Amino acid sequence: MQEKAMKALEPTSIRPPFGQYSSGVSVAAPQQWVVTSGQLGVGPDDVAPQSVLEQARICFANCGAILAEAGLGPQDVVRVAGFVTAREDFAAYMQARDEWLADAPVKPTSTLLIVTGFTRAEFKVEVEVMAAR
Question: Which SUPFAM superfamilies does the entry link to (predicted)?
């Protein structure tokens, strides 16, 4: 019997995740891996919306476009790393993340950091993902 390609790891000896993500994810080899650079909340028109939620949605859409170039999608994501510039922005970021990953059968691992800023003052969110299939 072949092991599933991705499996959530949730040991009962640790606190469960705070949201819709896994504590760990195991990926059976061999796999195709795709890693994105950090994607900012700015569209191809070089405009960044004021809303953290809209910027985060752009970040995830950009990550999705990169994955699609390799034939992968949100269901293949193993790890998400997010960065926001204000603590009060984490809920909007998590809403966009959860929307994007709603149909993923195995929720990826997830890290969110609060940073002092990005290359342009209007940028409020950055996201990078790792995916495997």
Answer: YjgF-like
- State the burial class of residue 91 (Cβ atoms within 10 Å of its Cβ: 0-12, 13-18, 19+): exposed
Q: How far is it, in rounded angstroms, from Cα 106 to Cα 77?
A: 9
Which domains, ranges and CATH numbers included, belong to the chain?
Answer: 6-132 (3.30.1330.40)
Strand, helix or coil at 65?
A: helix
Indicate the burial class of 94 (C-beta count within 10 angstroms; 0-12, 13-18, 19 or more).
buried
Kindly report, residue by residue over 74-114, the tens digit of the pLDDT.
999 999 999 999 999 999 999 999 999 999 999 999 999 99
Provide the 3-class DSSP secondary structure of residue 98: helix
